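Hi Prof. W.,

I finally got the 2,3-dihydroxybenzoate-AMP ligase prediction working! I wasn't sure whether to trim anything, so I left the full sequence exactly as given:
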Amino acid sequence: MTSDVVTWPAEDAARYRARGYWGEETFAGFLADRTARFGDRTAVVDDRVRLTYAELDSLTDRVAGGLRALGIGTGDRVLVQLPNRAEFLVAWFALQKLGAVPVHTQPGHRSSEITHLSRLSEAVAYLIPDVHNRFDHRELAAAVRAEVPTLKHVLVVGDPGEHSEFTAFADLASAQPLERRTTPSPQDVALLLLSGGTTGLPKLIPRTHADYLYNGRAAGEVCGHTGETVYLAALPVAFNYTMNCPGVLGALAVGGTAVLASNPDPSYCFDLVERERVTISAINPQLAPLWLAEREVTTADLSSLRVLQIGSARLSDDVARKVISDFPGTTLQQVFGMAEGLLCLTRIDDEPEIIATTQGRPISPADEVRVTDDDDRDVPDGEVGELLTRGPYTLRGYYRAPEHNARTFTEDGFYRTGDRVRRLRSGHLVVVGRSKDQINRGGEKIPATEVENHLQAHPGIESIALLPAPDEELGERSVAFVVPTGEKTPTRRELAAFLTERGVAAYKAPDEVRTLETMPLTPVGKMDKKVLATLLAEGPTA
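And this is what came out:
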């Protein structure tokens, strides 16, 4: 797989090792090491099981033995599509012990994405639940397996049903334990993550043992993680955000506990916070209003919750201030990052206004950040430009994507993120939007994210997305898709007046408003503007 992966230049790699960012540990020995230190502590909790470090390590040994008996070994890629339950982590660490490479897919992926990822990765196996959220993954797996010759094994958590050729995960868990663990190099690929773009099929992001371990460790240090940390995974654990920012792996790294929530419903999650004495959790901006509403009526004891992370998309300043005021005793931590690498966090001791209005600063002193104009020239702090970055945990190239890499990376290895930001003198970044997320209205450039953030504060709006539509006179006009909080959607005139009151230029007001019952989301929880663009092309509904 080495030829499919762009590695760090030798001198950069040597520098990262010399400065202690990269160590000799790999995920193959991660659990055994933690078990030696924290064996009797609770490692993982879900709705059905509670496993200590020793139990988790022993179970992964058996599953690894069962996988090896199927012929799965070093370098093999395995698609993992499981909801938040202990089997995800059991399988993940079992694959690490074999030197195999888990490919993180999302619960909402279907035949188009799974077939694409199977072919791209040349996966030999596909791990699924039997039925999840009323969807039968076994039928999906059978269809994909028929299309992809490399896909030899389907592993099912639950009942394989009529598919006798599938392997029950329970059978793997009762196999003879793995006798000899693989010992990969820290620079070997440990997992393949998915790009989080809102258009097109996902690309694969290779993360090495060294860089991904450092990612979680550095994030955990910023969050003040200790052995007393209890992390609530409210979003899918397959997300990089949930897995390692610092997420599940960051908690396990220091002997803490990972609590896997089966869904992000705030009432259910608040009960888990009280029951498990959760100290940190992470949600996205779409969930923030729901958690705020539940906070007003809940009787659950949330006093243990020290940090609430909100990230994966831009959080509006107004919602951030409300979270700060309505969750006393809990610090809001804004998170801005990408599965490709760079992770920015606001700090626990930042001033409230910095927490409310910025998306944090890089977690590592080795993170290199540039903010540039269209000609790759650096712009002064305070001016808007595209974010470019490189560092000890930011990829140097996507997996098997040489043409895309040529466009996406500079000659000296900086990753063009596509995000438009302002950098403050403190190093904190303010996310303005995406480079391609602008509307050119008669020559005036409208940053969609900026307008969305303002309108998100309107009391009549639950969720909003701004898109461009072709216009004969203006070139493009702006269309606001609105999920209202009540029965009545605010009119264009009302939204224009609201924006004027907030000091926003008049040309940024939406030219048209359309009502939605729910906002379409991508598998990683971002507004799916590809779906909205399709609705836009179809025209207004009667």
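The domain at 438-538 is CATH 3.30.300.30 (GMP Synthetase; Chain A, domain 3). Does that look reasonable to you?

Thanks,
D.
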